[in-house]
Amino acid sequence: MPRALKITSLTLIMPKINRSKLLGFPNSHAILVGIDEYPHINGHLKSAVNDATRLAELLKKEQDFSSVELLTNPTKAELLALFSQLTNEAKDPVIKPEDALLFYYAGHGKAGVFNEGPAGYFLPSDTKPEAANLQNNSLVPMEMLFDTLKQLNCQHTLLILDCCFAGKFRHIGSKRRDALQTHFLPLYEERFERYRSNKAWQVLVSAGPTETAADWMGDRNALEKHSPFAEALFKALEGRAEIKPPGKNLGDGVITAQELYLYLWNEVEQRSRTNTQFDTQHPDIYPMADHEGGQFMFLDPKHALNFAERKERNPYPGLRAYRKDEADLFFGRKKQVQEVLNKLEKTHVLIVSAPSGFGKTSFIQAGVFPKLKEALDAELLVFRPGPKPASEWTALNFKVDLDRQQVVLIDQLEELYTACESAEQQEQFEDALVDLLETLVHHPKMHQQKLKVIFTIRSDFEWQFKASKIAEVFWENETHKVFYRLPPMILSELKEAIVQPAFVEAYDFESETLIDHLLEEASYAPGALPLLSFGMNAWITHTNKQERLLRSNFYFDKLGGISGALSKCADEIYHSLSFGEHDAMQRILLRMVDLKDGAYIRRRVPVRTSAHPLHLHELDYPKDFEDLSINKVLGRLVEAGLVVRGIDAFGQPYVEPVHDALINFWPRCLKWIQDFGEDRLILQRQLWTAVKAYLQDKENAFYWEQDPRLEVIEALLRKRKWEAGWFNQAEIDFIQISQEKQQHLNQDLAKENKKLTIKDQLGF
Question: So what's the pLDDT on residue 723?
Fold first, then answer.
């Protein structure tokens, strides 16, 4: 090989490690090219050969590569000869497909014209000028290197380019999903095995496709100069790139190409940005064609292999929202999170609006708040209005402190208009919020105070909010007019939200085609993120925990697609029940529906437990076997994650759907609502409101003896059993008392009429 130095004997500082054996490769090869000398174009460099030489030493003595070959200042003919000899089976050593290969280039680079010719060029030492440009026929197209690597077809291939316009190589291979994974993932044993066994074809570049790369930074008189990218690369391979989670501060002993990228980006971007003599560089990593989710890996010379401990968890929350401690599973909203953080730097009050199913609660709890916690050590206080917002606000006794770093989240503010049981409660809660906001806005040290108040609201209830007392304060001062509308996810963001949580927990997808199916399905339902999360949750639940591979046959045959998983799950529960339990399931779901402004929304249903025998119980029916059926069905719904149990601020237990999606996207439930009728649904809510007042104060209760709605209910009672069966025990008691009072009233009225008739007959 022309002017090639094969490094075979070096003094080892660290105990020798067998990289290839540990990672499962027969051999690990490195080919390094450094070019400083450009006599024909007067473009000599200072660091390229030094960089390649130093890297060769590191790979041999710190990483124990099987073979390391260094080529310095090659001409075009010598560079092409190198490409040719790499695929020569007569050459020693022979690079085989089952091996690992690292190819490094440091020198000049030139951008090409994408789609009209080579995407970019390497400049060999004998590059020649042509007028004010370069002779393209004296350059080496990047495609030639790619074709060589393609022919070698190594199981693990990493290409490192430190040259101007290195990012142009992106246009040579196809861009795949691995480009999304630009964050730290714990190295579980399963993930290590996947990284090792799956094909890894990755490119690590020192600069973007339109950026120049600095030859050196620092002391002009230094004897040994390195480029800023190379200096960071050497430190990374010495162990600094390994991310050590908090706690024991122990790494896993492996430096992945992804960790290299994260370290290099931070080091090079910061150093080049703060040095005014050079343009800012942005290192990047992306996959080449044939990449299959593996990772090119180096060993940390200072730490033994040490896999992260994994606690099994489902990375998708189903219908519930992501919590604040699940920030590592929340993806797809990076841009929007930053936009909200920017707004919160200028204001203390923010309202986030979006349609149902856009993930507003998850966005604040797992997206925005963790960043505030990290930056400000903030405390999160969460409040949902519910049926009695004023009473619950008082009972919870929120310790709001203007001088403490707090974030008060008033979540799902639309419940003030959908779930609130009385105008009095609504008015009192609005007054409480007005007091809080006025204190906040008019505080003498407004810009020094630390409290942040964030509202979330469904966009179709914005008009009611804007007409409220709260909004008057909210918009009183232009400085505090902050209203953020959460946009729908674009395709790349949706891909992150669907795919990345699985990667975090070491799950993988059977194929890229399967991911494309998920995206296609999700793109048709941009407002149905809870459905997608529920489907993915079910998929993970039924996936082999050792294999950790999401397969297409389950997706199509068992799951019915991620958007169909909720219906399939609810239908499976329904079909597993007896006929009487079918009625119980129907009663439960109808009780959990409310109709507001033409839309179906979930509703809390109070229940009694053995620990709370004196509380309200809306699901208490006349016969014991009906109660047994109700309890069984409720248990199944809770176990499946469709319904959640809770206790309000007064200790009243309740059940409610985890999300409105159960009501609005399960065809059987929609059919029940349709058959039941919206008029009856409204009547049921009105009856229960009257019954609650009766149960809480029987002596002063208002009965329906003179209410025309009693006649409607009596007509229902005369109809078929299933139509009348939606009355619970307390409602039946209330109806019977109302009927008795109506009979007494009618009897008294009849007596009075009879007296009047007799008087008329007698002429009095």
Answer: 56
Taking the whole predicted model, whether its pTM rises above 0.85 is answered as: no
pLDDT at 758: 67
CB 54 within 8 A of CB 230: yes
Q: Tell me the mean pLDDT in the region 406-426.
A: 89
How far CA 613 is from CA of 603, 653, 656, in Å, comes to 22, 10, 19
CA-to-CA distance for 211 and 425, rounded, in angstroms? 61
Other C-beta atoms lying within 10 Å of the C-beta of residue 102: 24
Q: What is the pLDDT of residues 77-120, one digit of tens each?
A: 999 999 999 988 878 788 999 999 999 999 998 887 645 556 78
- Give the Cα separation of 29 and 148 in Å (integer): 15
Direct distance between the N- and C-terminal alpha carbons of the chain, in angstroms, rounded to an integer: 135
For residues 531 and 661, give the distance between their C-alpha atoms in angstroms, rounded to a whole number.
7
Q: Average pLDDT in the 139-165 region?
A: 91
Q: What is the mean pLDDT of residues 201-210?
A: 89
Distance from the Cα of residue 390 to its chain's centroid: 33
- Angle, helices 667-676/579-591, rounded to nearest 10 degrees: 80
**DSSP state letters, 246-268:** TTT----SEEEHHHHHHHHHHHH
State the pairing for strand pair 406-410/100-106: unpaired
Adjacent-strand bridge partners of 205: 161, 284
Tokens of residue 719, six digits: 């109809």
Q: What DSSP line would sit under 333-380, residue for residue?
A: -HHHHHHHHHHHTT-SEEEEEE-TTS-HHHIIIIIIHHHHHHHH--EE
